[in-house]
Every structure is written in C-alpha cells, then in structure tokens.
Amino acid sequence: MSTSDAPRFLLTNDDGIDSPGFRALYDALSELGEVVAVAPADDQSAVGRTLSRRVEVREHELGYAIAGTPADCAVAGLESLCPDADMVVAGCNKGANIGAYVLGRSGTVSAAVEAAFFGVPAIAVSLYVPGGSGDAWREKASDPADYRTAVDAAAYLADNAEAAGVFDEADYLNVNAPWSDGDGPTGMEVTRPSTLYDMTAERDGDHVDLVDRTWDRMLTGDIPDPVGTDRRAVVEGRVSVSPLTAPHTVRHHDALDGLADDY
After folding, report:
1. How far apart are CA 5 and CA 31, in angstroms?
2. Which residues define the annotated binding site?
3. What is the mean pLDDT of each run of 10 residues along the chain (263 residues)?
4. Preceding amide of 73 cis, omega within 30
5. Closest CA to 154 of 181, 188, 125
6. Residues of each annotated binding site for a divalent metal cation
7. Which domains does the chain possess?
8. pTM over 0.90
9. Residue 7 phi/psi, 5° resolution?
10. Rounded Cα distance, 140 and 128, in Å
C-alpha cells in the first residue's frame, strides 16, 4: 500500500490518454484514491505487448503521456514514474477484449499482463460497443458517460478485489462490460475466455482483407459460446470478469517427453 491509507492507481490504456473511456475511468478511480496516468500519447490499439527501448515522456494534466505502447507505459510507470503503485488499471477500452485469441493482441490486456510480471495486481477493463465488423461502432462511445457500465464494474473491483483475496489466485482480471442504452447490466459473472475464432481473409487484387466475423455474430446473438464464457456473458448483458494468470500454461505430454528422451 502507498504511504497514505488511500490506494495509488497507475492508470494506462491503449486508446490514448485523451480518449473518453480513459477520462471516465480516471474520474471514477479518483474517488477511491490517487490516480497517476501513464498512458500512450496516441492510439496504440492491438499492439499486444510490443515494447520499445526508449520512449519520450511528457507531462500531462492527468500524469504522463508516453510516446509508446501500453506495455511501455506499464514498465515505465512501475519502474520509474509511479513505482509505488498499489494497482495497475488499464482502460477503459472502446470495444470488448473477449476471447482467448484476443488476449495476446490487446494493448489494454497486455498492460495488465506486464504489471503482473512486476507482482502488481492489475485490472484490464473494456466496454463492448456493438456495430459488427464494420465501422459503425466508431460513432458510438464518444462521451465519458457512455462508459458507465464498464467504469462502475472496474471501480467496484478495484475497491474490493484485493482485500477479498482475489489476487491471491489471479494475476490480473480481464473485465468486459455490455453496451447499455439505458438499463444497466444484469449482474457480474466470473468467466473463462471463449475459444471461438472466426477470422476470415479474402484477397482483393494486391490486398488481403482480414475480418473478424465474431463481431457480426455478437451483433445478431448468433454465437456458439457456452455458458461460463466471457462472450456469452456480455452478449446476454452481464459484466464478464475473467481471473487470469500471466505465464503461459505448461502441459507435459507423453508424446513430447518421448521425443525429448530419444533425441
């Protein structure tokens, strides 16, 4: 815990420090403790855990703007700019970060993963914004107030999860909230990442268009994800919380052991 009784949050994201979701989360966490922003100066979506050797830092009204990636922000923040942070919170991302295949792509999630290797509890938080695989979703969630469902869930967990012992088992939480046109979510569900993968690639002359059809499935509700998965929870209007660990799982197999023994 920081020197005061109130917790100190290092807040980062991948949409950029001036994004509305970031401001919404900054304001909510400020009611719980001190918040130091260490976030990308511009949009760094879907960069995964890309890391730089040297980044430019400039002071910002909320903390620090970094000319780098979310992983850069987590390292620079925890090692230099905010080394006494009690928790790292990443978000609020415009667009859901759900499914096992997204975990390695998302800059938002990657910042939380990076924090986990420092032994600092972390929460990644995102808001599902409907619109399918096209650009319709870009017109939504342009105001901090649009992020209330995600921000309320993140603030609740940031305020209660550590004392409840959640981080004794999980390295970080991946939180995804449903879109709301007025009514709030119908609850919070502990989930596991969905294994649905529906990427397509179609050649168009000198280009190949890569499309994630999962978003179209979510828009229509036509998803095969079983109960207990993150995507199912969000589509049905619940906040999804996946308790995750940072190292990749290692599983020994007799077949591989045999190959290694015979080498």
Report:
1. 13
2. 14-15, 45, 93
3. 76 97 98 98 94 97 97 98 98 96 95 97 97 85 94 97 96 96 86 96 96 92 94 96 89 86 94
4. no
5. 125
6. 14-15, 45, 93
7. 8-194+224-262 (3.40.1210.10)
8. yes
9. -70, 160
10. 11
